[in-house]
């Protein structure tokens, strides 16, 4: 089963034909989940001592399993954050899978790491980070946020051990470490705090739900001195998942900078819009952050799973994250850029390569155009909401998330509507909850999502 024999050749044709057909769909069927019982009845036991054979395993996948997975790249999939990988990125994902590249070290993966780093460089340049900036592609924003915060705490711990609070040499660490974020910060930050056993200080928002320099300063000043001394970082959200709001990066970096705090920008969804001139100014101040993340698998048109984690001073991450072991010591040379040294994890897929390949194929201008198209579709959708008397916009969209209310509807109405559209194979639009109220929310990332799509979905809310 490790040799490319006649059977493998047959399977290769079938698998590649399947992949090609899936890529050719315009659009792919939306599909919908099935229950475990339905799936068990349809496929039976697939892991057997003798194996099913390639044709049968692929048939079960094609005819049953794949159809029980929602196509996240469908142009009317507007729930959560959709996916919209380019064909080039998808194709190259097949190549990465076929190539057994170890992406954790320079020794083993130099060519792949070099290419990934050029893709990271493009992002770092868009952010206004210095030439010394660098990082790694990790599986997702959750691991990216956690890795950045682990680095930030490591830096704070070392500073404490060196200087103590206010120069009191030798003082033990603070009773509790904590980081500050805004009320609309992503749930992965609470997860990071649980994993790290640190506290989260949630700062108040301005009227729109954004963390600002002033609300950050208030939050810090409101803490007892002992707790304030344990604050090691501030997380600014550059595009909240719920509304697409961008925190006041200029104000936050100024206040945090004056207090010597690490600033991490969580831009898993929103920082893709750095490439869009029409909204670039909303990220002013980003050039001052210490670390940032953005997920190519969200709005940068790469397949799952890839999060770009970039540090202003990557050597700080290297100190915090490098795993030490006898069998690894050969990798640890000063000049080697080992991606695993900059985040949690050791073995790694060169998961930035599909993103890199697509960037190399299409050029960055195509990215700018595709991101601007999603912004324009979101703006058109907001206009469509405003023009329908049965709908009410909840906040003006800053990026490509549109949240609105169907006047007179209960939570059950939203859920019934959402279920109806999915069952019909027409659209996937799950409701959200904001301050206890169930609302409709469209997140738009695909350049294939059109104003006609959003209008047709909005029309289904009339009844
Ligand atoms: C999606 C998201 C995350 C989590 O990223 P994953 O890739 O899903 O782990 C974190 N922060 C924000 C703002 C997000 O939108």
TrEMBL record:
Keyword tags: Aminotransferase, Decarboxylase, Lyase, Pyridoxal phosphate, Transferase
Biological process terms in GO annotation: amino acid metabolic process; carboxylic acid metabolic process
PROSITE patterns listed in its UniProt record: DDC_GAD_HDC_YDC (PS00392)
A Pfam entry, by short name: Pyridoxal_deC
GO molecular function, one term: aromatic-L-amino-acid decarboxylase activity
Cofactor entry: pyridoxal 5'-phosphate
Annotated positions of the N6-(pyridoxal phosphate)lysine modification: 298
SUPFAM superfamilies: PLP-dependent transferases (SSF53383)
Family: Belongs to the group II decarboxylase family.
Protein name (database record): Aspartate aminotransferase family protein
Organism per entry: Frankia nepalensis
């Amino acid at each position: 089963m490790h040799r490319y024999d006649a059977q493998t050749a047959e399977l290769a044709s079938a698998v590649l034909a399947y992949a090609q057909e899936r890529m050719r769909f315009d659009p792919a069927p939306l599909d919908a989940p099935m229950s475990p019982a339905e799936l068990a009845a349809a496929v039976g036991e697939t892991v057997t001592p003798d194996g099913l054979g390639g044709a049968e395993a692929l048939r079960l996948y094609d005819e049953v399993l794949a159809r029980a997975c929602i196509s996240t790249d469908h142009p009317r999939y507007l729930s959560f954050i959709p996916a919209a990988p380019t064909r080039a990125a998808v194709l190259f994902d097949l190549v990465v899978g076929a190539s057994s590249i170890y992406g954790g070290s320079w020794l083993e993966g130099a060519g792949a790491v070099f290419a990934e780093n050029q893709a990271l460089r493009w992002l770092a340049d868009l952010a206004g980070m210095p030439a010394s900036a660098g990082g790694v592609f990790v599986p997702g924003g959750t691991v990216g946020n956690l890795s950045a915060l682990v680095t930030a705490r490591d830096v704070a711990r070392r500073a404490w051990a060196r200087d103590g609070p206010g120069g009191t040499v030798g003082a033990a660490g603070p009773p509790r470490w904590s980081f500050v974020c805004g009320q609309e910060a992503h749930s992965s930050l609470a997860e990071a705090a649980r994993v790290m056993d640190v506290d989260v200080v949630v700062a108040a928002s301005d009227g729109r739900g954004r963390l600002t320099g002033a609300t950050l300063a208030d939050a810090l000043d409101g803490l007892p001195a002992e707790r304030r001394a344990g604050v090691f970082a501030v997380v600014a959200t550059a595009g909240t998942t719920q509304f697409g709001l961008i925190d006041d990066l200029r104000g936050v970096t100024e206040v945090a900078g004056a207090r010597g705090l690490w600033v991490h920008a969580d831009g898993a969804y929103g920082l893709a819009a750095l490439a869009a001139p029409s909204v670039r100014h909303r990220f002013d101040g980003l050039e001052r952050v210490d670390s940032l993340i953005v997920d190519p698998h969200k709005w940068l048109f790469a397949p799952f799973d890839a999060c770009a984690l970039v540090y202003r001073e990557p050597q700080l991450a290297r100190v915090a994250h490098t795993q030490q072991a006898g069998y690894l010591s050969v990798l640890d040379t000063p000049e080697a850029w080992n991606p695993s040294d900059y985040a949690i994890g050791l073995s790694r897929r060169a998961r930035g390569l599909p993103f890199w390949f697509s960037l190399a194929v299409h050029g960055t201008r195509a990215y700018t155009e595709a991101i601007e198209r999603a912004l324009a579709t979101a703006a058109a959708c907001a206009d469509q909401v405003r023009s329908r008397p049965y709908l009410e916009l909840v906040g003006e969209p800053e990026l490509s998330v549109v949240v609105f209310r169907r006047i007179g509807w209960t939570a059950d109405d939203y859920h019934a509507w959402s279920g109806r559209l999915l069952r019909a194979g027409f659209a996937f639009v799950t409701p959200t909850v904001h301050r206890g109220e169930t609302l409709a929310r469209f997140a738009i990332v695909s350049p294939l999502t059109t104003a006609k799509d959003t209008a047709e979905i909005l029309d289904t809310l009339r009844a």
